[in-house]
């Protein structure tokens, strides 16, 4: 196990993860940080964590986890003796780093290695060097001096042999190793400096051209006003400034080359980098020659204004022509590349993939050959795939934007139709960089002119508005009326013109935009397709695996196995994460040996999905059900209903459409839990179609089957109180739960000396409870950490204003905890699952009575244990689904 304390932008952590991945080390990696900054790293905003999280999710999420908490909070979630490599890079004062080492030392394994960053920093209150001086006399150690210093401490009694040999090297040999690593670092820095200088040269050229253009404009305006003498003086000043900039550039690049050459001469042992350096130097020499040419041009420029303007105009015309030609070539290349990336190659090669699935020896031979071929190529595939994923994410945002009109975009730009791409994908790849308008309601060029930071960030203007601009109150402007439209509008009076131009919206498109997530799924029939279960949902990501999404994955996969069908996942709001899909199957002990096809098809103009005659759709919400209902027979739909979704809305249009969909008499409805089924069939606004065509299953918890060793508090140790806290989920009743805890602490129902409080969920404010109690906040826990945490709880409070039993009470009860939850309609008690679940009314007094009953039961370990032994919480999905699948099979055959 690898743990890093203090990750910031993630440079060192990414290096650790890359090494684990490259050498196929069977390790789990964890990065612990608040991502809020400190007095040494400085304070920083959410963008640091957002950028790292996005990169981490794409690269390392299969074996790595980001834990957003303090070091002291996180240490409780790691077992003693479990960590093999610990990197300490938090607050660098002596007291802080000593505390971190002492706190985490019990978690180290018998072969553990601890890395200390900044052992060579001695300014201000940096104290790592002081602790390092103490520890290196107690344990085998090795220190790299270059940079800020890195200490390698072999803490475990059985350290790796290779590292032990390095730690015991004589000083001369140790110095050689340090020197070689330092040279590698210097060589890398020299190369980066040369690349930075090349970028600076390009920027200087652009600045030079801009100043010359500005000169021309000033000259023309001032010549008309008869002020040529003033202009000539300004020209001389500009030339002098440019000459100074060129001289400064020459000095910078010569220093960089000299430094790189010195590294080459003193580092014959690192020749593997010489080729890269040679190329960089060649580029630098070419840049130097070009700068010399520019310098000569500036020095020899004629003082005669007319000659200078004529020369510049000729040069600018040539550059504009070259730029136009380059843009045309670029657009053609972009479209060609995008068409290849979005071709039907994947479907066409399905027989090949299936052959390799059943012939592992051939598959291994093919993979070895493929790796050999790829290794001989340019090596830019990861970057290309990362760019492609980024463009697909942008396309999803564009497609779901109310300011994107696919039909309008296609009619305005002829090359969109010729490209064969969907409008959203074309805009993400080509249109945005050309500042094309995504609809008549969004002038992209006006937006980037009004907000230059968009161009500086190199962002798609519409994506920037949806992700940032809208939150910050940025304005948008409609596209100017085309000339023909303006001419046609001349007979109208000014009032009429203001009403019609330029933001005319057709009523049917207005309706479709408002209910964007119910637009029909784009499909096309393919004869002879095998039977297949296609699950349609919004998204699948590591952050959405709890509760209903995980159950939907298990349901669709298990149904495909039961029917002997293929399996496919279609997402509508973001590209699916296959690793997350596999994680939930593994946790729930569901095996799947065949291929799983993943398709991202957002509303409006998503990719068309090929479907066969025997296609079965598993839909996960009323809006995905409505989207699918428009493109297939209702008998092909299995609607997985896990809440009374009508309760999501106040009375109005959304609730009306939800009720219409959920009442469809021709769709098979499978309900999560008997209690919810009873509510839907006999509660308020009962649904006759669910009673006639529906069935139900009970949720299962196989990942909790082996949780038997609960934490037992030692004498004098506080017991643990769990609170399920999601303040932005209105059904969670977060505020009522917080009221009950506050009241119970104030009146003595909960003894602050007996209990510690753990708030689990997301978006929680850092609230301080009465008696100055600071709860432990557990935000966005990885699944395994969540299981370990609930297995240590004594009492839980989990409120949910829904007829479904909800998962947290069942999670806690399945591990032996006592839970207080609320009643709702026919959900009057949950003793059918566990007698350790106490249901009460939602008023504060009743909930306090429930907590008192839980306290009494917690003091009676025999009764609590007996209740746990009589639990009827399922641990086997196959048994849970058996009845429901029989109904589905009979209705879909």
Key structural traits:
single chain; 893 residues; alpha/beta; Rossmann fold; 4 domains; 7-stranded mixed β-sheet
Low-confidence stretches: 263-278, 339-366, 368-378, 481-503
Report the CATH topology name of the largest domain. Rossmann fold
- Overall residue-averaged pLDDT value: 80
Distance between the termini: 49 Å
- Helix coverage percent: 40-55%
Annotation, overall tally of beta strands: 24
- Estimated radius of gyration: 33 Å
Instruction: Give me the number of helical elements.
Output: 35
In the CATH hierarchy, what is the architecture of the largest domain at level 2?
A: 3-Layer(aba) Sandwich
Strands, helices and their partners?
Layout: E1 2-5, H1 11-22, E2 29-33, E3 37-38, E4 42-43, H2 46-59, E5 64-68, H3 71-74, E6 83-88, H4 94-104, E7 108-117, H5 128-135, E8 141-144, E9 150-154, H6 161-167, H7 171-224, H8 228-266, H9 274-299, H10 305-341, H11 345-348, H12 350-358, H13 360-376, H14 381-400, H15 406-412, H16 414-419, H17 423-431, H18 444-450, H19 452-456, H20 461-469, H21 483-488, H22 494-500, H23 507-514, E10 523-525, E11 532-537, H24 548-563, E12 566-571, H25 578-587, E13 596-600, E14 609-611, E15 615-619, H26 622-629, E16 637-641, H27 653-662, E17 668-672, H28 674-682, H29 688-693, E18 694-697, E19 719-725, H30 734-746, E20 755-761, E21 776-779, H31 783-790, E22 795-797, H32 807-814, E23 818-822, E24 837-840, H33 844-858, H34 861-869, H35 877-892
Parallel strand pairs: 1-2, 1-6, 2-5, 6-7, 10-14, 11-12, 11-15, 12-13, 15-16, 16-17, 17-18, 19-20, 19-22, 20-21, 22-23, 23-24
Antiparallel strand pairs: 3-4, 7-9, 8-9
């Amino acid at each position: 196990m690898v743990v890093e304390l203090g990750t910031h932008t993630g440079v060192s952590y990414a290096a650790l993860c890359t090494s684990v991945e490259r050498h196929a080390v069977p390790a789990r990696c964890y990065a612990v940080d608040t991502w809020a900054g400190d007095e040494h790293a400085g304070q920083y905003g959410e963008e640091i964590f957002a950028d790292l999280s996005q990169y981490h999710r794409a690269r390392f999420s299969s074996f790595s986890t980001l834990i957003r908490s303090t070091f002291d909070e996180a240490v409780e979630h790691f077992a003693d003796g479990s960590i093999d490599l610990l990197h300490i890079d938090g607050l660098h004062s002596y007291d802080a780093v000593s505390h971190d080492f002492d706190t985490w030392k019990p978690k180290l394994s018998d072969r553990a290695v601890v890395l200390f960053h900044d052992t060579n920093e001695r300014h201000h209150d940096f104290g790592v060097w002081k602790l390092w001086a103490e520890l290196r006399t107690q344990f085998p150690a090795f220190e790299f001096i270059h940079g800020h210093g890195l200490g390698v401490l072999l803490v475990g009694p059985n350290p790796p042999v290779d590292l032990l040999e390095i730690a015991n090297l004589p000083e001369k040999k140790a110095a050689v190793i340090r020197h070689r690593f330092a040279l590698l670092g210097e060589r890398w820095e020299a190369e980066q400096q040369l690349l930075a200088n090349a970028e600076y040269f390009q920027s200087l050229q652009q600045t030079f051209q801009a100043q010359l253009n500005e000169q021309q404009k000033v000259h023309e305006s001032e010549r008309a006003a008869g002020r040529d003498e003033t202009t000539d003086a300004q020209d001389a000043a500009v030339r002098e400034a440019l000459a100074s900039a060129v001289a400064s550039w020459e000095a910078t690049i010569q220093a960089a080359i000299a430094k790189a050459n010195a590294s080459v001469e003193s580092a014959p042992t690192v020749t593997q980098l010489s080729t890269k350096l040679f190329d960089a130097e060649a580029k630098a020499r070419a840049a130097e020659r070009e700068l010399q040419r520019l310098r000569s041009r500036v020095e020899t420029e004629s003082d005669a204004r007319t000659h200078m303007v004529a020369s510049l105009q000729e040069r600018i015309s040539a550059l504009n022509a070259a730029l136009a030609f380059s843009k045309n070539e670029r657009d053609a290349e972009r479209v060609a590349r995008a068409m290849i990336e979005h071709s039907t190659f994947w479907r066409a090669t399905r027989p090949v993939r299936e052959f390799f699935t059943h012939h592992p020896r051939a598959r291994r031979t093919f993979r070895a050959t493929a790796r050999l071929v790829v290794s001989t190529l340019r090596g830019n595939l990861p970057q290309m795939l990362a760019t492609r994923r980024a463009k697909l994410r942008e396309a999803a945002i564009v497609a779901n934007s109310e300011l994107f009109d696919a039909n309008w975009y296609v009619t305005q730009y002829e090359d969109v139709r010729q490209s064969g791409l969907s409008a959203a994908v074309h805009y993400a790849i080509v249109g945005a960089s050309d500042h094309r308008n995504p609809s008549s309601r969004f002038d992209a060029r006006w937006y980037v002119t009004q907000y230059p930071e968009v161009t500086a960030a190199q962002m798609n203007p519409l994506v920037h508005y949806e992700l940032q601009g809208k939150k910050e109150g940025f304005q948008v402007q409609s596209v100017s009326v085309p000339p023909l439209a303006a001419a046609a509008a001349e007979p109208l009076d000014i009032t009429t013109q203001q009403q019609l131009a330029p933001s005319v919206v057709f009523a049917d498109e207005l309706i479709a935009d408002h209910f964007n997530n119910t637009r029909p799924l784009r499909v096309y029939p393919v004869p002879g397709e095998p039977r297949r279960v296609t699950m349609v949902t919004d998204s699948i990501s590591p952050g959405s695996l709890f509760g209903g999404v995980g159950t939907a994955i298990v349901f669709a996969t298990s149904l495909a196995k039961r029917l002997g069908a293929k399996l496919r996942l279609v997402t509508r709001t973001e590209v699916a994460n296959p690793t997350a899909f596999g994680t939930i199957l593994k946790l729930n002990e569901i095996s799947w040996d065949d291929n799983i096809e993943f398709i991202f098809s957002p509303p409006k103009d998503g990719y068309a999905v090929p479907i066969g005659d025997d296609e079965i759709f598993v839909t996960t919400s009323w809006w995905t059900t409505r989207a699918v209902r428009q493109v297939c027979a209702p008998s092909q739909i299995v609607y997985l209903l896990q809440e009374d979704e009508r309760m999501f809305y106040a009375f109005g249009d959304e609730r009306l459409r939800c009720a219409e969909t959920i009442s469809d008499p021709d769709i098979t409805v499978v309900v999560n839990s008997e209690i919810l089924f009873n509510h839907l069939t006999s509660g308020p606004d009962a649904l006759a179609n669910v009673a006639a065509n529906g069935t139900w299953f009970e949720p299962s918890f196989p990942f909790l089957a082996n949780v038997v060793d609960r934490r037992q508090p030692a004498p004098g140790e506080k017991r643990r109180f769990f609170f399920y806290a999601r303040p932005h989920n209105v059904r969670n009743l977060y505020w009522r739960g917080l009221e009950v805890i506050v009241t119970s602490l104030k009146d003595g129902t909960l003894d602050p000396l007996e209990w510690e409080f753990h708030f689990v969920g997301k978006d929680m404010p850092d609230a301080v409870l009465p008696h100055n109690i600071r709860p432990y906040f557990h935000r966005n826990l990885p699944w395994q950490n969540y299981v370990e945490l609930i297995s240590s709880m004594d009492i839980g409070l989990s409120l949910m204003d829904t007829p479904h039993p909800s998962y947290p009470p069942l999670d806690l009860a399945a591990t032996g905890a006592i839970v207080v939850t609320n009643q709702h309609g026919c959900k009057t008690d949950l003793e059918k699952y566990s007698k350790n679940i106490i249901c009460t009314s939602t008023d504060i007094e009743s909930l306090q009575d429930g907590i008192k009953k839980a306290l009494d039961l917690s003091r009676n370990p025999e009764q609590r244990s007996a209740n746990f032994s009589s639990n009827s919480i399922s641990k086997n999905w196959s048994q849970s689904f058996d009845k429901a699948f029989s109904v589905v099979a009979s209705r879909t055959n």
